[in-house]
Amino acid sequence: MSDRSPGLAPSRVTAVLGPTNTGKTHLAVERMLGHASGMIGLPLRLLAREIYERIVRQRGASAVALITGEEKIVPPRPHYFVCTVEAMPLERSVEFLAVDEIQLVADPERGHVFTQRLLHARGRFETMFLGAGTMEPLIRRLVPDVEIVTRDRLSTLSYAGSKKLTRLPRRSAIVAFSTERVYAIAELIRRQRGGAAVVMGSLSPRTRNAQVALYQSGEVDFLVATDAIGMGLNMDVDHVAFAGLRKFDGRRTRWLHAHEIGQIAGRAGRHLRDGTFGVTAEAEDLDPDLVEQVVEHRFDPVEAAEWRNARLDFDTLPDLLRSLTVTPQRSGLSLTAEALDETLLRRLIKDEAIARIGRSRGAVMRLWEACQLPDFQKTTLDEHARLAKDVFTALTGKRGRLADDWMAPRFAEVDRDDGQIDQLSARLSAVRTLSYIANRPDWVHDAKGWRDKTRALEDRLSDVLHERLTARFVDRRTTALMRALNVREDAFAGVADDGEVTVEGQLVGQLEGVRFQMEKGSSALEDRTLRQAAVRAVTPEINLRLGRLAAEADDAFSVAPDGAVLWRGVLTAQIMATPQGADPFSPSVRLLGELGPTPARERARRRIEAWLATEAGRALRDLRRLRQAVETGALKGLPRGIAFRLIEAGGLIDRREVERDLAALSQVERRTLKTFAIRVGVHSVWLPGLQKPRARHFAQAFVAAPLIPATPDPISAPAEPPSARLLAAHGLRQAGRWLVSVDALEKMAALRGASHGRLSEEALTDLGWSADQAKQIVAALKTERARRPDGPGAAPRPVKDSPFAALAVLTAPPARPKHRRSRRKAKV
């Protein structure tokens, strides 16, 4: 495209130069849309796609064409063309033409293409070159009629020094220079900070846009990228951290130049928002002079542009090679080093078959086209040469095209979306190669069909790759919770009817009553985040529940034999029981959970304790009545001592423990015991009312010991002798190695009495005992000796730690006169 059209004034050529964040690309797009037609060349396919979608939103898809090496979207009559620089269709005449990142004229690999655009690409009315300020002297030398416009950065860029990866501020981009390093850093960020998006130049536009959307939406606060972000990709980055300062440029590993650091670091800050840059990981701190250059945007000017002869001679292969080595005859231009296409050409012409075919001008042109096939897959030179040879052979064969039988097997080989990130990336690179071929209508039969197939496959693989990258490098639950914590007023948290607690749609735990059970995190970071989010989500609900609990009616509570207190059927508190048994009439409970204000939790705890004390008065009514009689002095003398032992033991004792007291009771005192529902049996003295199911159920809740199964058969006694309170709570007595119910012992005594001390088979069947069990139980009862008090009228000794130990201060009953027994006999 020449710089002058017949009958029109020369095109106005403007160079807009300045550092990053000066709005150069935005200005070019706005200027282009002010013309009836336009074309813009961009350095990356990713950036071209971004600008294309932006213009489509403003002017509609029918007005815009996208042309890259691997993708062509060209409506019937487009007004604007968005292209990669290499793919610009310069044969089209447009009113406005722009080339972005023009400083790439100095790039060893691609520079000659940018140089050709700088020298020859023009719009009919306006041409604009965008780039760094270092290009000003060279552009003035190469384009004499250029108008230079310098733009200042809209915000301040400052150096923040070195920071650990785990200490980087939110909204940071970490830059590395290899795929392996990018993945390693992203994995570390996931473990320590919740997750990171990944952006690399090798990603398809669809994958890259999806990853950027993760970052832009705030779902993740970190971006790990290659230096691709330095080429005009606009994101809300506040800080850029270099994880290394050396890169492989295709030929060697070298230190970054100052202007390259400035180009990448300049992505920090957006519009009027200031930005910072620094180093992290293994990167050494930047030299102060280098920092000053970057902060002040002061770099050495570009001295020469890479150049290669654009007027190639295709008459013969030697002529083509000779034309590629022509040197520039102009100051400011430097012959570029041998590029990949030239290397392939020199290798392929050594092949006799290719040399034989490539004798015509058309064949030489075809060979050169095949050599320009990009190496998207980064294969070896031999493999790429074989691919170029296959293409050339097909193009110069009888069909003159790559047929379906060539495309189909290669397409089928990559038409699968299983595997991990590396495998998907390799398939996407292979699809890019097929897309490039399919976008050459003169290369392929049914080019449109293959373009559609490769485009659909690339989209599908891109989506799957995005999912794999997100699954590997983003902890969605942690990042969602962290976002909710950072934006408190916008966070959505709720408690479902089944108690599931969610924050931003992520399950954080289960709320049961007033107890919150937090989900287990996969890392320390997730655990901390879960706890913070959970506390924020459930505390208001727990406060409401504590208030409702404190005002509940009695029928809302129940208790389990293991001491669990239920509120509306949900475990809410635990009775503070002891092996010797807690006092059911002065209960103490532990409210489950930790959340909620202390006063509210205290009120709820006291409400449960009040209900337990009331319920104990109902369920253990006989024990409560007996205790009140002892405390108030309503019981005196020997009945008082017997009552105390019953209270202390939980309502069931061995008769032999109080045998002497029973023998000394008067008829009036016996009637008194009966009045208090005390039954005196052959083997036991007990309160029958406490052996009812409800009373047993309640009494068992206050004994901190394993529950004993309810069975009519004798139960083997444990190695550790059960406490008296535990046995009483289950209505059991221990006889040797057996635990037997009090009712069964008394029934056995009655049956033995009726059969003169022997148990018949019928009696054993009635008892449900075996003959061996009966023999052992009877022998144990005969050999056991009851513990006797110190004297006939001594007060019982309390068991240590008994809940009724306070009753031991009761004075012993007065001694009986020695003549009482004889006087009673005489009266009878």
Radius of gyration: 46 Å
- Figure out the total of helices: 29
Q: Structural class given helices, strands, pairing? A: alpha/beta
Helix content: 40-55%
Report the principal-axis shape: elongated
The strand line-up of the biggest sheet is 4-3-5-2-6-7-1-8
Nearest-integer average pLDDT: 85
Number of strands: 32
Q: Stretches where pLDDT falls below 50 for ≥5 residues?
A: 1-8, 487-491, 786-801, 804-828
Largest sheet features: 8 strands, mixed
Cα separation of the termini: 142 Å
Approximate strand percentage: 15-25%
How would you portray this structure in words?
With 828 residues, this protein is an alpha/beta fold. The protein contains 29 helices and 32 strands. Helices cover 42% and strands 15% of the residues. α9 (317-324) links the parallel β17 (305-307) and β18.
List keywords for this structure.
about 850 residues, alpha/beta, elongated, disordered N terminus, disordered C terminus
Quick summary of this structure?
The chain is of the alpha/beta class. The protein contains 29 helices and 32 strands. The strands form eight sheets. Strands 4-3-5-2-6-7-1-8 form an eight-stranded mixed beta sheet, sandwiched between helices.
